Amino acid sequence: MSTDEVTLPLVDLSGYINPQKPGDKERVIAEVRDACAQYGFFQTTGHGIPMSQQKGLLKSIETLFGMPLEEKRKLSFLNNPCRRGFEESGASLRDGDALPDSKEAFYIGREDPVVEHSGFYGPNVWPPLPNEEFHDPVWEYYEATHKLGEIIWEILLLGLGHPISLMEEFAKRPMVVMKMIRYPPQAGDLPGQFGVGPHKDFGGVTVLLQEAGKHGLQVWHEGLEKWLPVKAMEDVYVINCGDMIGKWSGGRYKSAKHQVINAADNEPRLSCATFFHGDLFATNPLDPADPERETVGALLVKRFRNQFSFDKELIAAVGA
Ligand SMILES: O=C(O)CCC(=O)C(=O)O
Ligand SMILES: [Fe+2]
């Protein structure tokens, strides 16, 4: 087989979510385990998120980013204690990048009434749009992908032989961040210009919706030393594991490098990533005997220390 034919595995999750016969769940668990071990990524159908919710979300994203820039700037995530809100195009520059990412993004998370723990918990920022145009479809979609993220975590636990009862502690008050993204059309052949530059996701499970037909995501395959393009297909989700899962599984599940170069001809590309990390104070459910007892919060603080400031109490509480 030529490497050009290598594509990510496609897993039908309905055998786990709605098993019809003995063996259905086990088959899905094995498929997910193998995909995450080999690629750190897979695509999925049978995920349980209705098309109406996906369409509602994409329409809301379009409405949001269609607002005038000065209106969006008033919602900047840089001014928000919980890092919720709008991220302007050009705001993300990773070490070694030639140019900043061209994407613009908008972040929401758990809806907690007061700011706690250096802003890991707290209220969202909502744009001044009618609820039915933004808040309601976005929140409905957030809850649906939150649930899917949790299901994938369960499957990953089962894949390593652990009981899903471990999810009770892990998902008590889980950090679930949703990032809505718009990539502008790629500006010609600018070398070093990415929608999102090469990176690995920080944490747990990522549930990614790409606008159908708007290709652009590429995943690095270590063995082949090649970028694999990931097709953006209708009603097909992309799931991947972040660095926390890579580390906590002892490398049994991979956290793979990926990037986005908008491949749509002169058109913007929309996507939405829901990152399910786990409770701030939870420790490794993928190896309950892990002697390190490192918390989700400690990993978050280490990763984002350069970008955000965290108070001393939080740092002590999570053991960072
Ligand atoms: O937009 C995409 O397809 C991927 C986005 C991504 O990798 C990220 O935001 O971490
Ligand atoms: Fe990513």
From TrEMBL:
- Pfam families listed in its UniProt record: 2OG-FeII_Oxy, DIOX_N
Which UniProt keywords are given for this protein, alphabetically ordered? Dioxygenase, Iron, Metal-binding, Oxidoreductase
InterPro entries, sorted? DIOX_N (IPR026992), IPNS-like_FE2OG_OXY (IPR044861), IPNS-like_sf (IPR027443), Iron_ascorbate_oxido_reductase (IPR050231), Oxoglu/Fe-dep_dioxygenase_dom (IPR005123)
What does the record list as coiled-coil region(s)?
Answer: none
Q: Which GO terms describe its biological process?
A: small molecule biosynthetic process
Q: What family is this?
A: Belongs to the iron/ascorbate-dependent oxidoreductase family.
The protein's name: Oxoglutarate/iron-dependent dioxygenase
Native source organism of the sequence: Penicillium concentricum
